[in-house]
Amino acid sequence: MVRDSDEEKTIELVKENQLLRTIIDSIHEGVFVTNEKNEIILYNQEVEKTEGLKRENVLGKTEDQVYLSADYNFNETVTKKVLRTGKPVMEQFHKYKLENGHQMNVIYSTFPFYYQGKIAAVYSIGRDINQINRFILNTLEMENKLKTEENTVRQIGARYFLDDIVGISANIHETVLLARKVARHNSPVLIVGETGTGKEIFAHGMHNSSCYAKGPFIPVNCAAIPDTLLESVLFGSVKGAFTGAGDIPGLFEQAEGGTIFLDEINSMPFSLQAKLLRVLQDKSVRRIGSKEEISVNCRVISATNIDPFDTLNEKIIRPDLFFRLATVAINIPPLRERKVDIQVLCKHFINKYNNEFGFIVEDVSSDLLSLFEKYHWPGNVRELENIIESAMNLMEPGEKILAFRHIPNYYHERLNNYQQNSQNRNPDIVTLHDALLEFEKKFIEEALASNDNNITQTAKVLGISRQHLHLKLKTHKILKNFKRNGIK
């Protein structure tokens, strides 16, 4: 009986030891332990990750054998000091370089471990400075998200978070991961994506994941503001600068301590881009009619729905401004390149409109989902949401499956025509890129014909700016074909 009891105690001790080691390997702090002989006896996974060394190459060796860099003096200034004095060293900063060239900046605390009245080991618990910064930013994002969820009436600002982006595909996960990494710094970011891919949601999410999260989020659609007003809107004005002008701060001033989001930056007049470049370089603005420079401190995120290098080739964006704005570029994949996300997006939008309409719809039918997965989605996620909302408006209360019969008639034609064209098309004849360009060209030509070749009205119907439509006409060489027909 005694033997069984001893065996049980041994088993419990082994189990407890394994549990403690598992816990130590799971925490976000680095844990580093040396014994009284200065041999490293514990080196957890967090230290492995931050230092880039393998545990099997470290354990059993002394600090001097592992850390060969000349500027590593932790052993002399900390470990041996704690062994000698028996007193802990609390919350200290230590900077050293590893032999692999990796620079370490650590906040640590070091403690003596006593066994039977003698110091048997010295253990250090620390965090890399970069890890601390990430922890602070993640905490700010969570705090901001909780505050936003608690507010029943939301103020103007960033309403979305990177966690709100729906998708299971590898490319959308990679894009969100990149956005989360970039958000931690203050470099300008250019978001590139087709209309309807969710560029503004990414901008909201990056703001809420940044150190500017507690500041304002100011979105500006450069295509929606007349060219004559955009300068005063962005930079402000002083009284008397022009007829009706007052002392009004611009949006850059209003974004102080936060983020300004310049959507459709490709629609900004070329003449105004030089002034924007100066603001980005000097971090100051001058209101229209003023000689005073006002310092501004805000994050700048911009977005374009056309290929950024097309903006350079077509001289839509100044090269110096482009490279200033695109310090980091994030490309959002179109829906046709992440069709695995269509089903989860459908369920997401169904849940959204269930809450709005009081419905109990559970899913889309397999036939409709198959049709969705074959469609090319020129309007991307926004078009999918529009179809789901339109279809749910036509459902009867109590229906649980959204089917093809619920889709509005004008979408019937688009979905069926695309499916028929896809079946008849020889994939060797044309690339996907060429097919999309041809579809866009025909779509614009039909819109022009329906609006008596009126540029302004056609742009309004298409949901793009007049300047953007002119660019499309030039790209597709439609302008030459229609000049004789009296384009207005």
Name given to the CATH architecture of the largest domain: 3-Layer(aba) Sandwich
Terminal-residue CA separation: 101 Å
Q: Level of helix content?
A: 40-55%
- The total strand number stands at 16
Structural class: alpha/beta
What's the CATH C level of the largest domain? Alpha Beta
Taken from the alpha-carbon principal axes, the silhouette is globular
Reported by name, the CATH topology of the largest domain is Rossmann fold
How is the main sheet built? 5 strands, antiparallel
Walk across the major sheet and give the strand order.
Answer: 2-1-5-4-3
Radius of gyration: 30 Å
What's the rounded overall pLDDT mean? 83
Please, what is the CATH homologous superfamily of the largest domain? Answer: P-loop containing nucleotide triphosphate hydrolases
Domain count, please report it. 4
Number of helices: 20
Unreliable segments of 5+ consecutive residues: 149-155, 424-430, 480-488
Report strand %: 15-25%
